[in-house]
Amino acid sequence: MRLDRQTAQGRWHRRPDGKAKTTGELAYLTDLTAPDMLYGKVLRSAYPHARLLAIHTERAERLPGVHAVITHRDVPGLNRFGIVQPDQPVLCEDRVRYVGDAIAAVAAESEELAAYALTLIEVEYEPLPALDSPEAALAEDAPLLHPEGNVLHRTSYARGDVEMAFGQCVHIVETTYRTPRQMHGYMETEGGLFSYEANGRLVVRAATQHGYKDRMQLARILAIPEERIRVVSSPIGGSFGGKDELNVQPYGALLAMRTGRPVRLHNNRRESVIAGLKRHPMRVRMKTGIDAEGRLLAHEVEIVADTGAYATLGAPVLNFATEHAMGPYRIPHVSVQGRSVYTNNGVSGEFRGFGGNQVIFALEGQMDRLAALAGIEPWELRRRNLRAAADAGPMGQTIAPTDGALRVWRSAARSRLEARNSVSMQQADDPPWLRRGIGSAIAMHGSGLGYGIPDPGGGRLSLTAEGKLEAAFSFEEFGQGIVATLEIMMLELFACDTADLSIVLGDTDQAPHSGSSTASRSTTIAYQTLRKLQPRLTEAMLSVAASAYGAPQELLATGPGGIWLSSSGSEPRRLLSYRELAERAARAECPLRFETAIHFPVTPDPVVGAHFLYTCTAVTVEVEVNTLTGTVAVQSQRHAVAAGKVVNPMGYIGQIEGGASMALGFALMEDAEMEGARYATENLDTYLLPGAADTPASLEIDAIEELAPDDPYGPRGIGEVGSVALAPAIAAAVRDAMGSEVWVAELPIRRETLIRRFAPSAEEGTL
Amino acid sequence: MQKEALRLAGEPEIMLPTSLAAARRLKRRLGEEACYGAGTTLMRTQWESRARHVPRCLISLQAIPELSGIRRAEDGGLEIGAMTTLGLCRADPEVRSLSGLLAEAISSVAAPAVRNLATLGGNLCSLTGDVVPALLALDAELTVERDSGPVRIGLQQWLAEAAEREAEEILCRIHLPSASSRVSLESAGTALESEGAEGPGTTSICRYVKLGRRAAFTPSLVTVALAGRMRSEDGAILGARLALGGGTARPHRLPTAERLLEGRALDARVVEQVGDAVRTHYAAATDRYADAVYRREAAANLAMAQLWPLIRR
Lengths: 767, 313
Hints:
Chain A is of the alpha+beta class.
C-alpha cells in the first residue's frame, strides 16, 4: 500500500502534541524552572587521558553565590554508571579517559556564576598518551584503559566451513568499509530539573529513554531506595538513542541532594558534543564469495568498533552488528568476528539502527561488487540469495516467520524501473557535468532487545475518576509519535472519542514499567498490552453499567462519550457517560484499573542478542552527482517497508522520513572527527547535519502490511528501519552515476572522489 | 551580582555610542580591550568556539545614524549604510533592481534569522564573507572613517590594506556603481542577461555561485562571482570581473582570467584557458573540510561552467 494521506483516509490522525511542538509552546523538561532554583555545571576533563593527581575546589567554594562544589568524594553510593556494565565514573577519582569525563560539579545562583566557578577549580593532571584509534588501543604495548584490557567485547559467530567454501567460489570480493562517528544531533540538549517533593522524595525531570532504568541507576549512585526517586522523562526534544544512558542526571541529583534546593542543569551544545554518545565508527572487512550462478557460498566478516572510553551499550551494539552482518540472505558458510575496542575517543553507544547501519552498508556494498564481477544485475543477484519465509534467523535462531524480504524486494524491483525511467528522462536536458544514477539496498532489522536480555514491558489501562479512558506507559515521547499511536489504538479498541482519552507517559510515579523506548519495541509492547487489557476493562465497565441500569450486558458497548445500548428496532443510544460510569464504579467499589506485565517476543533458541521479530526494508534512490564539485544530491527515495499493520500512518511516514534523513547525513556529510582524541567539531556550525534543502523532494513509502498467517505479534517497529538501508543505496546510485571507476567504501562520501575536470573543448568536439 | 557574573563568565560589556566620533573615541580609549560590533553573528560563533577572545567591551555601532539606510547616489549608483542588515538589503527593491548579483550573494549567507541580524558591513569586515566576491565583481567602493576623516576607497584596495588598518577605522558605506549591472534577479547559476547600462548593443553577464558543505545555511567552500557585459554583435566579453573566495581564503579578483576574457568572444578554448587561470591563480584555503587542491579544481570547474553556456554555437 502506498502510504500517504490519501490512502490513510480516516486514520490520518493529527498528532496531539504536534501544534505545541511546532509553535514552540510546549514546555520541555529543560524549560522547567522552580523558585529558589540553582544552576548546575559540570567540569569535564582537560585531557583525553590523564592521571588525576589532585582536585582543589576551595576557590570555587569561596565564590559568593556558589552553593555546592562536588567531586568523587561526594558520591554516597556507587561512583559508576552504565546501563549494562557500570564502568563510567560519575565523578572521576584518579584517572580520566576521555574529554567528556566529569571531574567536579557546581551549583550556583546563576548559570554564568556556575560557569565561572568551574574555572576556579584547579585540577592537577598528569597527561597520559591518548589512544586515539582502535588500532592504537590494540597495539601490544598500549596502556590498558580498563583492568580487563582494551577490548570491551568480542563476538564470534560461525557456521559451515568458510575456508573450504571460498575454495569453491567463482567470484570473491574483499573490501574494508569505514563508517563515521555520527552525532545524534537532537535539538534539545541533555538537561532537566532536579528537586525534592514535600514528602522528601527526589524528583528527576530529565530526558531518558527508560525512566525506570535511570531510577535504578540513580538509586545506586545516591545510595537511596528506588522508591525515594521519581523520574519524569517525557516529553523529549529528540533522542535517537543518545539519551538512553544517564547523562546529566547524576550531577543534578547529587547537587539537589547536597543543597536541598532545586537545581537546573542543561548542557550547552559544546558540552553535549563532548560528553554525549555517538554512533560507533566501525571498520568492517568483508570477504564474500558466490558460485557460478551467483549464489552466496561464503561470507567472512571482521568488525572493529571504536567504543570510546566506557562500555554503556557498546557490547549489545556489537552483538547487533554481528547478527545483521548476514542481512536477509541465505549463506551456508559464515564467519563473523567482532571486537568493540576501548579508546580515549568520545563514548560511542546507542544510536538509531544500533550497529546495523554500519554492517548493512558493508554487506550491500559487497552484493553490488559481486554483481558487477559476475555480470549479474545487482537486484537479481539479491533475489537469488534471499531468505524464504520459514528460514531461520541470521544466526540460525528461530524467528517469527516472515516473507518480508521477498515482498520488499518485489516492491523495490518496481521502484527501480520507475527510478530508471525518471533518470533517463531527466538526463536528456542535463548539462555535461551532471550524472544521474539509481541504487537500491535491502535489509532486515530486528526489534526488541534480543535473546538473553530481560525485555519486559507492560502498562495500565483504566477508567479514571474523571471518566477518562487512560492508557499509562512508562515510554517517553521524543518525537516518534507515541502519543498519537496510543490514541489511535485506543480509539479503535473502544470506539470512543479522542476527548474520552488520557495518555500518561514517562513518569515512574504515574505509569507502570513498560521497558525502554528503544529498539523499535514500543509499538509492539503497546499493542500487546492493550490487546490484553482492553477486554478486561471493557468487560468490567459493561458489567458495572449493566448492573446499574439492569440492562443486558450483551447489548452494551463502549462508544463515543460513554456506554451505549443497542436494542433491536431502535437506534443505539448512550446509556451513561464515562464519568457517570466512573462514579457508579466507585460507589460499587469496583475498580476499573487493570495492569499487566508482558515480555517482548523472544526467540526460544539460546543465541545471545539474537532477535525474533524482524522488519524488512528495501530502499531505492535517484541521485545526481555534480562532477564540477563532486556534490551528491539525492533526488528521490522510495522505501518499501514490511512491518505489519500500519497503526499510525502519519507517524509511520515521519519515522521513515526522519530515519532516512539521518541516514542521508551518515552517507553524505556527518562525521564527528577527532584529532588526538579531541573533538574537531564541537558545534553545529562545523558539524553539519542535513537541512531541508538536502533532503529529497520526493519520498514514497510502500507499507507492506501482510504478515505470516495467524501472526500473533502485531505491528512491528519502524523506528529504526528507515535509517539502515539508505546509505548503501546512495553508494550504489553514485556508482551507477559515475561508472565502474567509483566504488564507495567509506562514509561520508567525499566530494574529492567524485569531482572531475570539466573540459569544454571535449564537449564541443573542437580539440 | 548578575552583571558581575556575566563579566566573570566572559560576556562583554556593551557600549552604544550614537556618533562615529564617539565610537572612535571609545575605541581609542579602550584599545585592545574593546572591539566594534555590528550584528555580531559571526563574532559570537568565534567567541563560542574560542577562535577569538571575548573583549571586555563591545562597542556596538547600531545607534549611529549615518551607518544605516540605502539611498540612490547622484551618479545613479547605490549607497548602502554598513549597518544595514543583510535581510533588509536583500529585500530592498533598489538593491534588487541595481544588482541581482548582490541579492543573490546575500541570499546564500547563512539563514533568514541570521540575515536579520547580520549586516552588510559586518560581512565585509569579516574579510571572508560570501558577499565580498560579489562586491568585488561589482567593483564596489567603500567610505571609511579614518583619522583624516571620511575616505572613499575601492574594495579591492581596502582588502589589500586590511592588515595595516587603523584600529579605530569604521566602515561607513558601501557604494555600488550604477554601471555594474542593471539587471533583474534570476536564480543562481542562470545567465542574467539584459540591456547593459552602457546602452543598447551589450547584454550584462552576472553570475554568482557558492559551493557549500550542504545545500543551505552553510559556510562556503568555494565562491565564484562574475560580472561583465557581452557585445551583442560579436559576443565579445567586455569589462569582465571575476572574483573568487571560499572558506578562510581572502576573496580576490583574478586579473589573468579577466584579461583572457577581455574583448574576446567565448569559445571552448577561451573557457578552458580561464579554467587553467583559476586553477593556477586562485588563492584557495585549506581546512579540515577541503584542501586547496580540491578547491582550485572546483573553482576552475565552476568558473568554466558559468561561461560555457555563453559560448555562441
